[in-house]
Amino acid sequence: MSIDKNLRTIRSDDVQPRYDWNRHLPALGTMGVDFEERVNYRRLHDYRIGRAKQVLEASELGALLLFDVNNIRYLTSTKIGEWERDKLSRWTLLTRNTDPVLWDFGSAAVHHRLYCPWLKPQNVRAGLVGLRGTVHPDFGLIARHAKEIFGLLKEAGVEKMPLGLDIAEPAVLFELQKCGLRIVDGQQIMLEAREVKNTDEIALLNRAAAMVDGAYDVIYQMLHPGVRENDVVAEVNKFLYAHGSDDVEAVNAVSGERCNPHPHNFTDRMVRPGDQAFFDILQSFMGYRTCY
Q1: pTM of the model
Q2: Across the strands, what pairs with 248?
Q3: How many of the other CB atoms lie within 10 Å of CB of 243?
Q4: Taking a C-beta distance cutoff of 8 angstroms, is the pair 165, 186 a contact?
Q5: Does 1 have pLDDT greater than 70?
Q6: 199-289: same fold as 40-195?
Q7: Least C-beta-crowded within 10 Å: which of 119, 154, 172, 282?
Q8: In angstroms, how far is CA 59 from the centroid of its own chain?
Q9: Which one of 3.30.420.40, 3.30.230.10, 3.40.50.11750, 3.90.230.10 gives the CATH number of domain 199-289?
């Protein structure tokens, strides 16, 4: 099966290793082993690039400029601390004709060059735009990077085609428009690409769900009069991070009269005899998330 006629060809046996899909989905361990097929992360990376290229080429867009950290990870297989999720200061550019270019915080960019050999060193750059407005546009960083992006689009021959953008600061959008670029919704393109999962993605989703299965058993063992909602949240966080979670986004713990209407949070309320209790666990394993 050809995923990308220009850059990559992924064989059908690479996308779908031998597996009987009439059996239960595998809940694989996280160790690398030599005695069975587990998640192949380089195959996963190539598949995701192939999917994005496939959907991009089927659209009117010439390129995608992405600030959503989930989209950045999908294209580059890079992740830094959870603190970066709301900063909007990492981004990646994917054109029809080139591999993704990634801009990151300076030390992170150096790390990627050392430890991410699937990215070309020249495609990993240090960059900074607005940090959610804390770096004023008049300082010039946003304008400089907008011109840099336009230059890369021109080199790829797609500067006259629409540029798909997922999320960004308004100042970034305005500077891109000043360069003469037509900006359109790129988030739907990425969602279309990410919709179709390969074997490795399905295995990672199943692993993420298995971790939450274990977390619910922790909750079951804890639930008795006197335990507080925040006590449960603390133990679930401990369990998930100990088992490899890269982000426990939220543990909603709601009990008793707080269950209706559902407030989507937790407090220090103490569970009482006969209470109803409700829990929702949102966490990520290798970027694959639960809302369970």
Answers
A1: 0.90
A2: 283
A3: 16
A4: yes
A5: no
A6: no
A7: 154
A8: 22
A9: 3.90.230.10
